[in-house]
Design goal:
692 residues; alpha+beta; eight-stranded mixed β-sheet; five-stranded parallel β-sheet
Length: 692
Amino acid sequence: MTRKIFLTTALPYANGPFHIGHIMEYIQADIWARFQRMQGHQVHFVGADDAHGAPIMLKAEAEGITPQQLVGRIGAGRAQYLSGFHLSFDHWYTTDSPENTELSQEVYARLKAAGLIYVKSVEQFFDPVKGMFLADRYIKGECPVCHSKDQYGDACEVCSSVYVPTDLINPYSTLSGAKPELRSSDHFFFRLSDPRCVAFLEQWLDAPGRLQPQVINKAREWLSGSGDKALADWDISRDAPYFGIPIPDAPGKYFYVWLDAPIGYLAALKNYFESGKPRAKGELRSFEEFLGAPDTEQIHIIGKDIIYFHTLFWPAMLKFAGPPFKVPDHVYVHGFINLSGEKMSKSRGTGLSPLRYLEVGMNPEWLRYYIAAKLNGSVEDMDFNPEDFTLRVNSDLVGKFVNIASRASAFLTRQFAGKTRFAADASSVQAEAAALSSTVQAHYEAREYGRAIRELMAYADRINQAFDARQPWVLAKDPARAQELQEVCSRALYGFKVLAVLLAPVLPELSARAARELFGLDSSFMWADAAVLPQGIGSYRHLMQRVDPKQLDALFASVAAPAAAVKPAGTAAAKAAPAVADLPGTISIEEFRRIDLRVARIVEAAFVDGSDKLLKLTVDLGSGQRTVFAGIKAAYDPEKLKGRLTVVVANLAPRKMKFGTSEGMVLAASNESPGLYLLSPDSGAVPGMRIS
């Protein structure tokens, strides 16, 4: 039976490029989509940019452009990632679209008609200079518990206390610096606590296989909470100015971005159906017809950080909006991707840049394979380790998989004009391939990619071992054993074909080349091709290079100097200060406040093997220790730095370098004349003090 599948991934926020977490999720979903297509199923795999919200509005304002121009610029850069990593989205769209406006307003109207929308007055801080209500992230002040300065409106970074913005002492707006005013405004709420919603969600969560066990447990914890942990109604509105979709019956009110973002899944699908893009014969042609069909499966693949929205609000919205909208059949949740055991973070700039990966010439299928080998159907985090990455790619893909075709094809093309030959017992070879195909099929379906890869590499080992045991290089020397040689190489070649077919969801480009160049097919493999013995082989061309360690060095090389240079104004004996016209452009007080300068004590200092510029410093910031690589080796003896106070940029994004991760930057003064001088605070300063 042909399945009809509507597949999505989480929508990336349109205020910056893709990070490695996006690419990991897209690769995971793409493997599953390609696998389903190979079974002959109908898959509509769509994505979109999450384009609305105050952060995008404010970023566009700071750049002097419209939000639409900002979103358009970000959107224009998506294609290089999607094609670069062979991601087979059928359509990529944006939530800032006519379709999303229409669908969001329709869903709202239906929920309102069902009695699930109400209005309540809410008190919030208001910036009188910017003329807008402030989200917690745009409010700072003195922590009411430990009295640390410049803490955000919801939690203190120093003592970890959690509070509401009105608890802050001397609060100020991070947008204008003005003291915020407490004002009331009417907000629209979705009545998630309604008994109808609760009853539906309890039933929805009960469906076998809909969610992973860990996700069900978390959703039930939220659903069954009481007191201050009880299931809360959802604030779905924001006040102007706001970049979003207007609430149709409430001038000056907009839908909160988290209402229209998931509806963006549907808007992307609707635009895809209306775009005129070709689809297979027999596929449903109408968005409403496809979405409303009882056998259409709606499947979302998301990260574990957005479970709340996708297992409570989203299914409840869809349920009570009614047909053709339908609740998700499955929400598959994955963990995060770490780098050598350290958490990657978009906001901290830590990790592996997918664009850098492509720019240094690394094969995207290396990353697809490595991620697949690490993933399973649970919510566990995965780790990217450069050494393990190199070993797996070079050993598995080149040393085991590709090596089979290289070795077997050489004998077949030279001595048998590319013709294959199988003995009468070939059925046993096909039976083994069929059993493998069935096992791997089940693993792909369950998103147990790591298990599938282990099965396939074990099969590759068996092929190579059997090939070596028959010693074809010896057989080739004896003309009387030509048929035996041909059969040995044909069996190995068939094993390679089986692997190429079953690895096609992971390695689509390599597999397509094998299908076309080696086996003479005019299209990519389908799953059933694994059962077909090859009649011959074309000329072999090298299919994959090994990972070059220099590429990894380039991937993780620091692109910023490890120590900041502060140019002094100079004295009478020093070089004259530059003219005002030559100074860098001015910055605002808000921009300066973003730089977190802290007093730090150098606890340890050491030379770095292999570097003629760097020292490795361990610095104490009061709240903990960090490692900083500083380019000051020429000026300082490490032993004499221990115990010294200095100044560190504490919120600089950590940078993965050849020698390790640098988690900050020490400040040093220099100019064109020789000399490098670490900055030191005055006596009495202690580690952790903020410099302002």
